[in-house]
């Protein structure tokens, strides 16, 4: 059975264990996830190139929205991009 979401009542709070932020950016591995919109891949690649140049990071994975790729254990964080 499907429930109906009532936007007039407060949603139950759930605890989320966020990953701690890194102390520095140098040497981190970036995963890029593009959403297949126009220019999203170009924007993400430019952002990844800039991060690599400024902070000695490396782009490990470029994932297109319809793909599944292993990000766990191969990247330190991911950037999800939009285009248009």
Outline of this structure?
With 84 residues, the protein is α/β, with parallel strands linked by helices. Helix content is 19%, strand content 21%.
What does this protein structure show overall?
The protein has one helix at 40-55; strands at residues 29-34, 58-64, 77-81. With 84 residues, it is an alpha/beta fold. The protein has a domain at 29-81. The protein has a three-stranded parallel beta sheet with strand order 2-1-3, covered by helices on one side. The longest helix has 16 residues, at 40-55.
What brief labels describe this structure?
1 helix, 21% strand, 84 residues, alpha/beta
Helices, strands, pairings?
Layout: E1 29-34, H1 40-55, E2 58-64, E3 77-81
Parallel strand pairs: 1-2, 1-3
Largest sheet entry: 3 strands, parallel
Radius of gyration: 17 Å
Order of helices and strands: EHEE
Number of strands: 3
How far is the first residue's CA from the last residue's CA?
Answer: 38 Å
Strand content: 15-25%
Question: How many helical stretches?
Answer: 1
Low-confidence stretches: none
Give me the secondary-structure category: alpha/beta
**Helix proportion range:** 10-25%
Main β-sheet, spatial strand arrangement: 2-1-3
Mean pLDDT metric = 83
Coarse morphology: extended
